[in-house]
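Hi F.,

I've been meaning to write this up properly since the lab meeting, where we talked about keeping a consistent format for the predictions we share between groups. The idea is simple: the sequence comes first, exactly as it goes in, then the C-alpha cells exactly as they come out, then a line or two of notes. No screenshots and no reformatting. I'm using this chain as the first example so we have something concrete to point to.
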Amino acid sequence: MTQEILLAEYHKKIKEAFEVFDHEANNTVDVREIGTIIRSLGCCPSEGELHDLIAEVEEEEPTGYIRFEKFLPVMTRILLERRYRPIPEDLLLEAFEVLDSSKRGFLLKEELIKYMTEEGEPFSQEEMEEMLSAAIHPESNSIHYKDYITMMVIDES
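Output, unedited:
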C-alpha cells in the first residue's frame, strides 16, 4: 500500500470517528470526547499521554472544544507512528496471572477493584464502573480473566 493510500485511509477513519461526536456539525468536538475518539481508532494512551495530546490539539486559549483541523495532523502522525498500541494478549494474561497468586483463573470483584484503584496508575471511578460492567460475571461476582481478555483484545487484521 502506498503512503498516499495509507494517508487517505487514515484521514477517512479519523474524520468518521470525529464526526460521530461533532454534534453541531461544525468541525469541533467537546474536549472530553477526545479520549473516546482516539480509543475508537485503536489507540490506548494512558491518562498522562491523553492529557499531553489534548494540550497539543487545544487552542492557545482553551475553549472546551477541539477543532478537526488541529486534531487531524496530530492523530494522523500517531497512527503512522503506531503509537499507543494496545498491549498484546499474552502480556495481559501474564499481568492477570501475577495478580491471581493462587492460580484460580479468576479474580474476585473486590480484588479487581483493589488492584485497579490502589496500584500503578489508578482507574477513575468511571473507568472502574465501565470495566466492572464488562468484566464481572454477575452470578460468581468475579472476573474470569482469560474470557475477558479474549473479549477486549482489538483484532489488528
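Notes:
The radius of gyration is 18 Å.
Residues 109 and 141 are 6 Å apart (CA to CA).

If this format works for you, I'll send the rest the same way.

G.
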